[in-house]
Design brief:
Shape of chain A: globular
Strand order of the largest sheet of chain A: 2-8-7-6-5-3-4
Helix content of chain A: 25-40%
CATH topology of the largest domain in chain A: Aspartate Aminotransferase, domain 2
Strand content of chain A: 5-15%
Number of helices of chain A: 11
Distance between the termini of chain A: 27 Å
Largest sheet of chain A: 7 strands, mixed
Number of strands of chain A: 13
Radius of gyration of chain A: 21 Å
Oligomer: homodimer
Structural class of chain A: alpha/beta
């Protein structure tokens, strides 16, 4: 099997991730930060270590500003709904995932917020100046994906962050694609909030993710509950991360995420991105030479987080993806990938495209075989 | 080490739970229900199997009505916030956890909902007739815990459910304590919604839980995002469980929960409850004979899900719990256990109590040693 669906979930996972989760389940999966007994303290320390590791990776200075969530979607919902108010205005891009677009559309419908959606070039890359031009007096939030989950295009988040900070508007980065290989830096980007999943580039398990919230950004809570702190207080405590971490945390998942992030730090995001870029470039170049293939991704790794989106002639992408799986054992993802607006931008609304997404455990051989498979399918379809 | 903090998180976990999670992480942790490739389908089937297993345990007829959440707190927040409206009225009990009380108090403050809180007898057990007496024209929801996380008292949920159904008022049961040992039956209880954690009595990992929503109950969503379904639709799909499961699911956690629920079904909730009741009874009886001990739990297993709450003379419960851990290796939980209202009911507001909670892997010997430890502490304090 050749797994090229790393933009959905990275696979396989490093040994250290699987083993640490197993060890946690066996040895110390008590409630972190609740009871004061030995096992609970051990779980709490493991969670804190993971928190510190992730913060090191993202240049988050105060680990207490990072809340763990179940996935990036929860983090994005907390960020958006914690800040918007009736009649406010939000700026975002046409390359966002439904994790951003569906909450915004729901708030537009139910709360009357305004949304400006910035369109990009043929790859969806936006001009940061368009953000500046879209700012209104009531703009409450700017949201941008670090990199598109449809075609991998890397967005100019640092430039956007500079503009948002200049106007004093909170800036949320969705780092779902790119965290773990691109150099995420909340300080350099002026990111007031950063949402991320644990199970993609950070090499951790599904069921994990997080939201960084800069000191000074005050959110309303999406959920309230037991926090193990100020238990006698009738409302949610306002201290971070407790404020955003109601109920029992996913200790085994979080220690897995911590192990994954440690693995990424050890290898180095630069090394990972360089390696993935080489595979992405090879794949894009190889596919571009197959008759009938249309590419929607940049071949240049400095502008792509590791995704090659394509279609073959007028073949339904779902069919192509199905043949790749069934006849060649190659795992890709077809369709809209939960990002209909991005597909509309790229001209692939409707059926979408086939997405190949590389991970740091893919090899050059995987890529060569994938190109060969598409070539063979193209030939057999043409005849 | 003697672990008597099972009401926080059950520990240890059955072998099958740890092994299946490890196998998932190693072999098939792709995105369930997203791509159509072999690994994604395998993950999707594993999630569905877990869904069916949990439904079997709770007598939920249609597995599609069960959404997985990260914990019971998320499930409770989804249920409450999905149903209440400005100016509505909610009935609940004085024994609820902060997972219920904090969302309600927040909505009372921000949305002007009214709350009736039913007080119980000296154990917190409420009279179902008080629910009937509290119903108003605008009552939108009745919420009751299956069993208190402070003293284990089992609530008359079937009777309350009958009343709620009679008046056509949605009824939410918080089964955080008791699921896995008490015979949870959403049909027999007329429970319109059931919230539960995966990591307590169901023997699964932290980071899991779920919400059952009866067909016909329409919730507003708390979060929106990618669901892998109707991706071109700008809003959250209204089909269950997708509607409540935005973003990537916790596949390894959910397969662990499924394995735990299968384990519970194999042993039988009746057998587990009987076994835990025997230990609870022994513990309560043993502790009651120690001079200076005050008990807040029923010794009778038919009225207790497996918790013994106590205090020793005027000793700070945090200190007693600390000594039990440090000098005897016994894990308990002191303080308010995130349920200040319940403690106020039992007369233990302020410092709370020490909670011993048994699990199905505890032995009679564990209980005897725990009683002996308290006896020794009592003697050394008295002299």
């Amino acid at each position: 099997m050749i797994y090229l669906d790393n933009a959905a979930t990275s696979f396989p996972k490093p040994d250290c991730v699987c083993l640490e989760m197993y060890r946690c389940m066996r040895e110390y999966c008590a409630n972190p930060g609740r009871g004061g007994h030995a096992l609970s303290l051990k779980a709490g320390m493991a969670v804190n270590r993971a928190r510190e590791t992730v913060c090191r990776l993202f240049n988050i200075r105060d680990p207490m500003r990072l809340a763990f969530t179940k996935n990036a979607t929860e983090a994005i919902n907390i960020a958006i709904k914690g800040l918007v108010f009736p009649g406010c205005h939000v700026i975002t891009t046409a390359m966002e995932h439904n994790a951003v677009m569906r909450p915004l559309r729901t708030l537009e419908r139910d709360m009357g917020i305004g949304i400006s959606i910035i369109k990009g070039n043929e790859f969806g890359e936006i001009d940061p100046f368009d953000v500046r031009r879209s700012i209104k007096k009531n703009t409450a939030l700017v949201i941008c994906t670090l990199s598109s989950n449809v075609n991998g295009i890397i967005m100019p988040v640092a430039e956007i962050g500079r503009t948002a900070r200049e106007y004093g508007i909170p800036f949320l980065v969705d780092a779902s694609q790119g965290a773990g290989s691109l150099p995420v830096d909340v300080e350099a980007w002026n990111a007031d909030m950063l949402a991320f999943p644990g199970h993609k580039g950070l090499m951790g398990p599904q069921g994990t993710g997080g939201l960084y919230v800069r000191e000074g950004i005050r959110l309303r809570t999406l959920m309230e509950g037991g926090t193990g702190s100020n238990s006698e207080y009738a409302f949610q405590p306002e201290i971070m991360p407790d404020m955003l971490e109601s109920g029992t945390l996913n200790t085994p998942g979080i220690v897995g995420l911590g192990a994954g992030a440690e693995y990424v730090i050890k290898i180095g995001t630069g090394t990972i991105h360089e390696y993935k870029s080489r595979l992405t470039g090879l794949l894009a170049e190889g596919l571009s030479q197959v008759p009938g293939v249309r590419l929607y991704s940049h071949a240049d790794g400095s502008r792509n987080s590791g995704i090659v989106a394509m279609n073959l002639a007028d073949m339904d992408p779902a069919k192509l993806s199905f043949i790749l799986d069934k006849d060649f054992g190659i795992c890709t993802r077809a369709g809209l990938q939960c990002s209909p607006a991005a597909h509309a931008s790229l001209g692939t609304a409707g059926l979408g495209s086939v997405r190949f997404s590389v991970g740091c455990f893919n090899t050059e051989n995987d890529v060569i075989l994938a190109v060969e498979a598409v070539e063979r399918i193209a030939r057999s379809t043409a005849t």
